[in-house]
TrEMBL record, chain A:
The chain crosses the membrane at residues 20-40, 52-73, 85-110. This is Uncharacterized protein. Keywords: Membrane, Transmembrane, Transmembrane helix.
From TrEMBL, chain B:
This is cytochrome-c oxidase. It holds the Pfam family COX1. GO terms for molecular function: cytochrome-c oxidase activity; heme binding; metal ion binding; oxidoreductase activity. Its main location: membrane. It catalyses: 4 Fe(II)-[cytochrome c] + O2 + 8 H(+)(in) = 4 Fe(III)-[cytochrome c] + 2 H2O + 4 H(+)(out). NCBIfam families: CtaD_CoxA (TIGR02891). The lineage of its organism: Bacteria, Pseudomonadati, Pseudomonadota, Gammaproteobacteria, Oceanospirillales. It comes from the Bacteria.
Amino acid sequence: MRHLLSLTHPIHLVGGHTIWGIWFIAIYGGLSVACSVAPPAPGRDTLTGINVAVGVSTLATAALLVWLTWACVRASRRAGVRRERFFGLVSAGNYLFAVGATLFVGYPAVFLPPCL
Amino acid sequence: MSDTKDASLTPDTRQLHEGLARVWANPRGLGALTVVNHTTLGLRFMATGAVFFLIGGLLAMLIRTQLAFPDNNFMSNETYNQVFTMHGTVMMFLFAIPILEGLAIYMIPKMIGARDLVCPRLTAFGYFCYLFGGIILTASLFLDMAPSSGWFMYTPLSSGEYSPGSGSDFWLLGITFVEISALSAGVELVVSILRTRTEGMALHKMPLFAWYILAMALMIVVGFPPLILGSILLELERATGMPFFDPAGGGDPVLWAHLFWLFGHPEVYIIFLPGAGIVATLIPVFARRPIVGYGWVVAAIVIMGFVSFGLWVHHMFTLGIPQLATAFFSAASMLVAIPTGIQLFVWLSTLWLGRPIMSLPMLWILGFLVIFVLGGLTGVMLALVPFNWQVHDTHFVVAHMHYVLVGGMLFPLLAGLYYWLPQVSGRMPSERLGKWSFWLIFLGFNLTFLIMHWTGLLGMRRRVFTYDTAMGWDIYNLISSIGGFMMAGGVALLIIDVALHFRFGKPAPQNPWNADGLEWAMPKPPTPYNFVSLPRLETRNPLWDVPELPRTLLEGRHGLATIDHGRRETWGSDPLTGKLREVVHLPTNSWWPLLAALSLAVVCISLLVRLYPLAAVATLIAVGFLLRWSWENGAHPKAAPDATVAPGQPPLHSRTMNGPGVWTMSVSHLANGSLYLSLLFGWFYLWTVAPEWRMPETSPLSMPLLVAAGLALTLGVLLLAKLVRRLRRRHDAGLRAGMNVAAALGALQSTLLIGVVWLAELAPTESAHDATLLVALLYVLIHALLGALLCLLQGLRVGYGFVSAEVPLEPVVVLRLWYYNLVVYWSLFVAIWVIPTVLGGAP
């Protein structure tokens, strides 16, 4: 298990997108449920609890992914084996992409009403 | 021509070749139905896929004939509906996926230095499921009962009320049958790539094609089950009236759209990734340098595989989903352009930095680059919600889809065909015919589909069977039809070229393209055992770095060059490092895959004609055949009764605790888990969204019985885990009794679950709530029965000596199933009893 947690293990190739995927399902599913159970008044603009929740989760997820990106870069620099350097760097690239994907997908919460 | 008859080989080496040829021989005549070898089955998959391509192409020509002129009455509207539905269905399910899987089945062992895939009987089973499913589905055309609701079968159009005939049933049952094949291939490709690479081929050194196929196979494993679940639910609705998609009964037709596109969008990338894998294999060969940015490509493959699962709602932008939710999917749809762009620039950089030479395969690659980039650009346009609304369901979307799929899959596939044809036949195809074929297809394609963008922008809906001349679409449709027939001419030339080359093609040299891949190091045409000896490889470009490899392989100077034991063998290696871990002994030719697939075909047909007792009997027979198939494993006389290996070699995989079988079971549970999660999604989706869904105030399910069933399962898992721990310490005393007790616990769980269903007095035809509960309970019941049955079988096998401390693998595999059952059971208990009870039902 400790082996899997090592940041140079290829499991991290999919780590960033797994986190992104969970976050994506959570915001889409959460939005659908929230709009079904407690939709904000149609006249309100984007400063609703739903938008704030999407925004906060976006920033928190992005922060976690940024940290993992950095950790993978450091782990790959420390790695003695070429294979580990390879997977550390590629995983870092994928975590970085996941950072961009999270911010890009979450950004519309700034200017769109949630349930219309 | 076969290099194995080389006169310079020593008598010992020649004897080795003869021994391997005897052990790996493919029977002829009726016995050919028992073949399990990946080379033969890969070719069968591809040949069958090619036949379905011709059928799909013929249907396309019928469509283009009908649309060539306004107010045309070449076909009636009902026939047209059947034709376009079957065109899409045949091309997507019976051509694209199977032919690519066939290519992977044929090519992967040769590229990773293995003698076969890890589950050869599963390959054969998958092929027969594909063949029978395809025949059943295609037969509907000739019976004038073909489905007519479009290839994505939207409800309520495909439901009993609006499609009362058998067309939708043919689609739902036939496609589910074919998907068994796709999943079988997906599972074994994943395990084969991860666990049977030749010695030294670490994960970061394996060919890019293998990375692409690994991603494709994993996507099949995760992406296909939502559609399988959707098909089961829709067929249940049609056959028994369970209202999963009927709003009046608490269902929702949009649930079908979600389940379909959860599969359908990844499907596009499932089709594209192998195509891109071919491109990434061929470009370095013809650029005459290693690929630039191997790591970038690996990253792009992983990104594409994941992001493609986050796009499904972009097919549903017009369904009334809130703007913010559509924005999430719009953004994700644009994001997928980034990994595509990475790959494109890697390929262009490789050409730029190399010394490219032009050849027939490269011509197809250049065609791919042009067409796919255009398809990608219109894809980004369609990701924009306002534009998507304007062109939704028009010919613009049809054109985009064909640019992506034909550009991304057909052109690379044909490049691969010309590239690997000499490897298959030992002969070179005709350059002249090939070029004519390319230009006819390339120009014909663009004439058909480039123009179709305009037709769509002018407002032509994609499913209209005719149009009035006042619409102004006449000339565009006529040009598209001319282009379509030009393309058909190109396909005809291609067929002639391939057919003629078997007889008139020049004999191919050992490595006609000066390629780097291991598949060019073997005899041509390939022997059933691929390699006489398996090399140790630590390079990504074996034939460029070790040019003498074909010769030394042929002379048996590498690993596993023994055959005295009479077993079919290949290496089992560490998934990361490529270090040797086991000798994997592979099963030989067998009737069980055919018999199992045949009985499933009977199940399929009897469900079609609503002969349910026959379906039940055929299901039991199929289970019997599958269990009998599993009997011939481990220390069984037809498997590996003698565990002797050559000095210095690792043990046989059945004598270890972590052989590929454990991996196969785990990957299968990815698929199973995807199906289960889709079911949970359906439950929560209907609960949240369906307007007429009614959650009872108190659950109809008996909590004490549910908990008791769960406890029986938990005890069974604890017992099995203890037995496996003891086996790990080489203790097998009490193993048989332990297995029997575990089987009894599984039987107890099953009985209690039947009690739960019985006491609940569900009304599944009246409410979607009860129908979903019933399906969920049946799902865990089937798993409980399977767990019990496999433990019972293990007990028997211990008695026969096929399983013991010396042959400990199978209980580990069975334990994985029980672990899965445990997680699924308790999570389902929370979903269907705890949460509804805590939240309370609606009045």
